[in-house]
Amino acid sequence: MNMLKQKMTWLGVAIVLVVLVVFGAAMMGSVLGSKPKELPVALVVLDRPAGLPNGGTLAVGETIREQMLSNQALPFAWHVVDSEEKAREGLDKREYYGALVLPADLSSGMLSLATPSPIHPKVKIIANEGMNAQASTVVRQVLGQAMEMISGELAQQLLGQIGQQTVQIPVETAKAFIAPVSVQEEVVHPPGANHASGNAPGLLIQIMWIGSLVTGVVMFLASRKAVAAGSGRWTVSALQAIAGLVIAGITSGFTLWMASSWYGMELVNAGEIWLFLWLAGSAFFLLQSSLLNWIGFPAMPLLVLLMFFSLPLLNMAPEFLSQATRDWIYSWTPLRFAAGGLREAMYFGGLDAASSNATVLWGVAGGFLVLLLASGFKAGRAADAVPASATDS
């Protein structure tokens, strides 16, 4: 019973609850309940209206266009483009998660279903899997279901028109109306083999963050020992930065070699992927080391929290996140820029595709390199010293 009277017991319970709230928000708050909204998708309407026997016209493409654009239940932000080539350019530039292409013979093909020689028009659904596997799956599934419903409605309308002209409908005509429109699915920028369903970039960035953090702590301890032994603080900070950057290059190369050799991850443009991963690891190391040099070991909780709040977001499309998560975490976390750039380097053609995210990482690396070197000019403080057990040789 004396245990229950101790303040430390209840303080420990309060601390545990706070930790659970913080890490629960980090690991679950951004992910649980997430749902897609306003995924950018291209819509290409190439259909040419076909003439009806009664003198009217059948414009299936325009009908589908109106239904798609007016359906608020679809989680898409439509971008209407006038050619399939422009839609593919947008997919290559990571502007769309997918595209719906309505062919030129859509209306005429639908009319042909009532003739002895029916032509099933082919509607094309293109999924940009490299941009985000989860979002591309939503594009394929939702568009496939929507086209199935719309084609069924169109088939019922045409059957009703035919029924007004004749009592009996030929068996072949009825069979043609069972599946009036063929849906052709295509995947662009697919991840290679053993890429964790397109989640490999996020996994590699997680490994690099942890590896850089370990490197940063080791270099921080080594620098404190060197300063205690009489070395100049600025010289130690410069050597700390140089050593960390070299180690980041080695660890990034080893990580890729391990992923490829041990786990069979298929890598295209492995050299460019290694360079980008080296940049990411360098930016991480400089950020972590700067905070350690200026704050000391109290910086560790900040770095750990940053990691736990960022990791669930790395393989998620921003359109799946709540607005608060996008504004307060996703918009600025360096891990997001690293994972996005690595995804572009791996699936969209190398370093040229990752230039925008690489620029951000260069800025992070440059800024924190200045801070790391500047820490060499600050006066020594007791707070900077590591515990005696850590400095004993």
From TrEMBL:
Keywords recorded for this protein, A-Z: Membrane, Transmembrane, Transmembrane helix
A single MF term (Gene Ontology): ABC-type transporter activity
GO CC, alphabetical: membrane
Membrane protein topology class: Multi-pass membrane protein
Membrane-spanning parts: 203-222, 234-259, 271-287, 294-314, 354-374
PANTHER family: PHAGE INFECTION PROTEIN (PTHR43077:SF5), TRANSPORT PERMEASE YVFS-RELATED (PTHR43077)
Protein name: Phage infection protein
Species this chain originates from: Paenibacillus albilobatus
